[in-house]
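Below is a filled-in request sheet from our internal design queue. Each sheet records the structural input a requester submitted and the sequence that came back. We keep these sheets so that new team members can see what a complete request looks like end to end.

REQUESTER: design group, bay 2
PRIORITY: normal
MODE: inverse folding
CHAIN LENGTH: 277
BACKBONE (tokenized):
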């Protein structure tokens, strides 16, 4: 019998508003669950009310980490200060290394229909916080899918079975978009010593003898495999695993550095137009 991880905690997330009035649920980066190192934040969008998303996220800066946008339904137009522009369609992923600084906008390009997806923030260690910004637009058809006994796993970053995800990151992380049929079982062997969480975002699972319904974050204790079984309507899970940065965090809005003086520098650079030059 392989060792199996036990549940440490289950979190429901916190409804909030960000950007120009986009309603979302903050799953990580809340008073309850500050981070799952190296994952600083996870926002989940899921709405069919255009008033709740249409204004999107106008120009805003980032420094010191990577942002990952995972679009499941709907479309989002992205433009940044480096000159990149792209339209995220259902299933597409955008992986952006903000590094020393980028200013960008993310605006839904649809006036009706459901908008569903995630934004994940991956921290960077001090040695990488001020690297040159980098941007990858990954269309859905470049993301390998591993199918097995009722499970369908899109490999966004890292390896799973014999597939390797196309996303490049400065961090050793594994990101999987897992979809399970009703009653399907799924298990994974995380790399030793890494932190991980599951975001159950559709349906429900049984894990460690506990039933967990969407939307929820599950964190774990110990080492060994993670095992889940989907409920009667199946389940969709965002699986995130990575090596902790283990450094002090100074955080102010869209800037995540190691010290308060680095945050002051980021604010000064932004205010004087030097953040993204
Ligand atoms: Co942003």
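RETURNED SEQUENCE:
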């Amino acid at each position: 019998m392989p060792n199996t991880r036990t549940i440490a905690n289950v979190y429901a997330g916190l409804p909030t508003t960000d950007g120009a009035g986009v309603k979302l649920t903050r799953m990580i980066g809340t008073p309850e669950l500050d981070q799952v190192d190296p994952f600083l934040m996870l926002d989940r969008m899921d709405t069919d009310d255009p008033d709740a998303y249409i204004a999107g996220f106008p120009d805003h800066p980032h420094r010191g980490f990577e942002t990952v946008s995972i679009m499941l339904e709907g479309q989002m137009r992205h433009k940044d200060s480096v000159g990149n522009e792209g339209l995220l369609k259902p299933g597409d992923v955008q992986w952006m290394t903000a590094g020393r600084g980028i200013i960008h906008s993310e605006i839904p390009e649809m006036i009706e229909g459901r908008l569903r997806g995630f934004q994940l923030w991956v921290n960077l260690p001090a040695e990488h916080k001020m690297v040159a910004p980098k941007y990858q637009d990954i269309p859905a058809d470049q993301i390998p899918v591993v199918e097995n006994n009722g499970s369908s796993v899109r490999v966004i970053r890292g390896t799973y079975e014999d597939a390797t995800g196309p996303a490049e990151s400065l961090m050793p992380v594994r990101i999987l978009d897992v979809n399970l049929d009703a009653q399907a079982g799924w298990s994974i062997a995380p790399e030793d010593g890494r932190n991980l969480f599951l975001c159950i975002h559709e349906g429900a699972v049984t894990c460690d003898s506990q039933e967990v319904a969407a939307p929820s974050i599950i964190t774990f204790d110990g080492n060994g495999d993670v095992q889940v079984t989907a409920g009667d309507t199946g389940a969709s899970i965002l699986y995130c695993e990575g090596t902790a940065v283990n450094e002090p965090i100074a955080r102010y809005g869209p800037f995540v550095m190691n010290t308060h003086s680095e945050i002051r520098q980021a604010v000064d650079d932004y205010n004087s137009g030097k953040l993204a030059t």
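SHEET NOTES:
- Residues 75 and 89 are 5 Å apart (CA to CA).
- The chain has a mean pLDDT of 95.
FILED BY: M.R.
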